[in-house]
Amino acid sequence: MSRGDRPRPVPGSVREWSLWPLNTLTDGTAREFRAGDGNWPFRGFVVRWQGEVYAYANTCPHAGHPLNLDPARFFAPGGEQLICRSHGALFAPESGLCVQGPCAGASLQALPCRVVGGDIRVTVPAGHAD
Ligand code: FES
After folding, report:
1. What CATH number has the domain spanning 3-123?
2. Residues near ligand 1 (Cβ within 6 A)
3. Is pLDDT at 62 greater than 70 in this prediction?
4. How does residue 6 score in pLDDT terms, banded at 50, 70 and 90?
């Protein structure tokens, strides 16, 4: 396992987590992360899309399920939208807006995300992994 495989809290920060080097995520792909230990870590995922990086809670606004079935499969066939594997809701990767499906018009919970020193950092909501 490389140093970048396990998310870790940023020293001195309450809720910001350092994930992996940006260059491990190619454009048009996404990857899940878990922040915190125990049975109920915060679950999120990061999307690299058209040169930008976005992060969302891994919770579908329809029924609250995680979107994915495996760690790196978030995109629908065609690679233009994110998909929830439970009931097929489709989301815009750059906004998290549901554009088709049972929760059309609702959005994924966006998380503050930035790149520092080449690493992706995400801030998780208060009350999770802090
Ligand atoms: S839980 Fe995601 S579409 Fe139903």
Report:
1. 2.102.10.10
2. 60, 62-63, 65, 84, 86-89, 101-102
3. yes
4. confident
